[in-house]
Amino acid sequence: MTENIPSRRWKLEQTKKFLQNADLKGANLEGAELQWAELSGADMRGANLKKIYLSEAKIDRADLSDADLSDANLSGADLNKSNLGGANLQHAYLRRADLRGANLSGTNLTKANLRECALFKTWLKKADCSEANLQNIKGAQAHMQDSVFKRAKLEGADLSGARLDGVNFEDAGLQTANLSRANLKGANLNQADLRGANLRYVVGLTKEQIELAQIDKRTLLPDYLKIKWASETQYEIIDNKG
Q1: Which residues 6+ apart lie within 8 Å of 177 measured at CB?
Q2: Are residues 107 and 126 in contact, defined by beta-carbon separation less than 8 angstroms?
Q3: Residue 238 gets which letter from DSSP?
Q4: Cβ atoms 180, 159 nearer than 8 A
């Protein structure tokens, strides 16, 4: 007899400490309660994980590509080196999750909460992070090329050495963010709030990009871009590059 979905979900909830390398490909686990579950190396490709509760779960090196994790709770979860490529994480709660070395390329992270997440060397290419909360993330050396961060909250984010070429930061809040040594070639900084941000030693930043953004006297720019302040809000940029 084919096992019904409620029975399978119930069994998983009862045995959540023993799910390493589990085959959950395409499973319907919507709303399952799997806090502190041991899911290292699990195959959850294309699974329905809407509203699942995976707070503090160990999900490192797992495959969640193309899974639906909308409205899921992954706060404090260990997703180190997991594959979430193409997954739907809209409205997901991932605060303080460990995503170091994980693949989030092509994901939908609109309005997701990734505040204080570890994103060191994470792959986040061509992802939609519109209106997401990424305040105080640790995203040094992350690969974020061509991703969208429109109206996202990135205050205090560490993006030092990150690949941000082609990124859309329109209307994003980047106050006091650390972008030192990041690549900003072709990035859209229209109305991006860079007050107090560190842009020292960045690559690919132009005078035209800065003129579209919001800066103040605390904003640190690369040496080739000199600012002459006429007032607290009026300034002239002199490009000494080359």
Answers
A1: 154, 155, 156, 157, 158, 159, 194, 197, 198
A2: no
A3: E
A4: no
Q: The whole model's pTM is what?
A: 0.93
User: Where is 227: in which H helix or E strand?
Assistant: strand 225-229
pLDDT digits (tens, 9 = 90+) for 220-242: 999 999 999 998 888 999 988 75
CATH number of 120-242: 2.160.20.80
Residues 146/123, Cβ–Cβ less than 8 Å: no
| Domains 1-98 and 120-242 fall in the same CATH topology | yes
- Please list, residue by residue across 203-225, b when 16 or more beta carbons sit within 10 angstroms of its beta carbon and e when fewer do: eebbeebbeebbbeeebbbbeeb
Question: What SS3 state is found at 191?
Answer: coil
Residue 241: exposure state from Cβ atoms within 10 A (0-12, 13-18, ≥19): exposed
Domain segments of the chain as ranges: 1-98, 120-242
CATH number of 1-98: 2.160.20.80
| Angle, vertex CA 102, rays to CA 136 and CA 33, nearest 5 | 85
